[in-house]
Amino acid sequence: MSAIRHLIELGHERIAMITGPAGRPTSRVRLDGYRAALDRAGITPDLGG
Hints:
Layout: H1 2-9, H2 25-40
């Protein structure tokens, strides 16, 4: 989450996220942290392809 916060502090609003394999707990933790950081900054994730 600290990397995402850093990018937000630099002014970035569209930040990609690579979580890793779908079944791994660490992948879920990464995704949750990503979404939490964007939410705190008031940024809606762009989930489009």
